[in-house]
Write the structure tokens for this entry.
Amino acid sequence: MLGEDGTPVAGAENAAYFANVDRTLARQLFEGMVRIRVTDARMMALQRQGRIGFYGEALGQEGAIVGAAAASEPQDWIVPALREAGVGLYRGMTLDSYIAQIFGNSADPTKGRQLPCHPCDKAHNYVVMSSCVSTQIPHAVGVAMAMKIMGPPAGSPTPVAFGFMGDGGTSEGDFHVSLNFAGVMKSPCVLICQNNQWAISTPGAVQTAAQTIAIKALGYGIEPVRIDGNDVFAVYEGVRRAAEKARRGDGPTFVELLTYRVSAHSSSDDPSRYRDEKVTEVWRGQRDPIRRLYNFLTARGWITADEYQAMQTSMEADVRDAIARQEATAPPALQTIFDDVYEQPTWLQREQLAQLEAYPRVKAPHQH
């Protein structure tokens, strides 16, 4: 819908859309994308300083993330993969909750039990992601089926499950089982692949012989849609239409969002060892999703350079304030390691806790 320079692509349907595009929505999309980039940059800096152990940023993929998030409704459920924390933030997850999880402190909803970058937000139906690649896809289909069986709450729209994955995830068996089941049962879900063209160090051409990721859905009777993942309007409209289709009871859609992982797979990775970074620079520059939308907004007079700078400064301050609060928050109490296993601790757990508490330690529990 938007060209790489931020100009609407020619065409009657496109012209009609942008003649009536909502300024508030456009600003919200932009702010959501910038918030991810600002937050990611600060968290990567923390990792390099040794203040957190791990981080996986979404640099260059913000359009895919925010466009999909904006297409969801509050009653929908989000089952993410690695780079969808921005979906949670867009839907209302707080920075404090997100950063608490990365530190693994006592404010972390998962009580410090997860690797960083595994946030969850029960209040906004954002499920914690799994590091086991693709195991979340059958979960998303299962959530959708549960909602279909239960039916929508009285007076509420039909909820939809959004299941995310990366291109590498489509090579796992869970992907094929899930699409087969979703197609047969007409699960009310939208299955979204962020195709950033790298499954850690494996390029797409080595991973699959299929012409596109999207066409894999055809074999399961599911409609495939392929979208420019760096065009946030195209993502929003494509995913919104897929969600509305699921709400009508017309079954699932498989959406491929073509983007590029501009940064490393994670803070533990060096992509220069396995790819041509000259290609990366093209995606970092002329194909950048934030730059594309910024050009569109400035052409409309909907944002100025000064406003953009002030936005980044304000968001940076918000992130720094949240970091300060969460870094100062104590680690989880030692006894919480036994919480949530049984409704009441067993005699064996009580005995183990007593032994653990008596064990001599130089450092405080959970600190490294």
Notes: The chain is about 45% helix and 10% strand. Strands lie at 77-79, 161-166, 189-195, 198-199, 202-203, 223-228, 253-258. The radius of gyration is 21 Å. Residues 23-48 form the longest helix (26 residues).
